[in-house]
Amino acid sequence: MKNTYYIGIDGGGTKTNFILFDSDKNSIASVLMPTIHPAQTSFKEAVSILTEAREKLLINIKDCDYDLKVGAGLGGYGINKDYRKKLEDEFSSVFEEFRLYSDAYAAMLGALGGDDGILIIAGTGSIGLAKIGENTYRCGGFGYRYGDEGSAYSIGKSIISAALKESDGRNKKSKIYDLVLEYFKMNSVNDIATSDFTREHIAGLAAEASKYIYSCESIKIIFERAAGEITLHIKALSEKFENKIKLSYIGGVFKSEFIMKMIKEMNPDIDIVSPIFPPEKGSILQV
Q1: CATH assignment of the domain containing 167
Q2: Which of 55, 103, 114, 134 could make an S-S bridge to 73, C-beta 3.0–4.6 Å?
């Protein structure tokens, strides 16, 4: 009887991680490759990346004959039909049996171990997902321009806004003013108005600010609001459930003990658990 091996893939906007699993879905080997996001790579480039990753992983299999199944959670595999078609064509050029998901859905499968429940992702951006049987529900995730509430980016942006208000007298100066100057290495907060920081750079300000939650009331309020926004995602998705809810989480915002404490206090009836599996394993749970 042939053994079955699995390749689980987590594809983001900057890199793609591939993990080879044995028939019991234990990891054997991994390889990190460039992104295959359809907005950033050509068809030829993506096929080349997939082929190279496949070859690097399969040399770890000693069996002469085996079955191979592939699951992938991919950035770009969402509502854009052209992106979905491009990714499906790329995978069909390299793999015989595969199943593709959005990166958020694969992360949810992994974090919840395939069970029903809610996953909140709050990193640079934010989104909430829920799984009930074969049905999936989404909340938020509308991007940094109009959404991503509760994300590290939204926290960083709020801190910058507070610093600007402190600079012109609308608010009294606090630790926020000096923190923003130090973080962005500027002589004047006013220089921010003409700066073009990346989303990731602004999001990084949240981690720095979290060090002063208990010593600066203004920062504490911003983090309380972020916890409240995350809770709005949770409560909206909770309406779909009839039984006790399991919730997991992914993203840098949850590294804040204060955020975790607030979310637990705001959602006392929900069972909050650490992620069970990584997204790569989540992508093969339904293959």
Answers
A1: 3.30.420.40
A2: 103
Residue 259: half-sphere exposure toward Cβ, Cα within 13 Å: 29
Determine the pLDDT at residue 108: 95
Which of these, 203, 184, 197, 219, lies nearest to 123 by C-alpha position? 203
The conformational region for residue 73 under phi > 0 = left, psi -120 to 50 = alpha, else beta, is beta
How many CA atoms, within 13 angstroms, populate the side-chain half-sphere of residue 217?
3
**Model confidence, pTM:** 0.85
Residue 89 lies in a domain: yes
pLDDT (tens digit per residue) in 41-90: 999 999 999 999 999 999 999 988 999 999 999 988 877 899 999 999 99
How far, in Å, are 33, 143, 158, 160, 204 from residue 178 at the CA level?
39, 29, 15, 11, 16
Looking at the structure of the chain, the number of domains it has is 2
Question: Cα–Cα distance between 41 and 36 in angstroms, integer?
Answer: 6
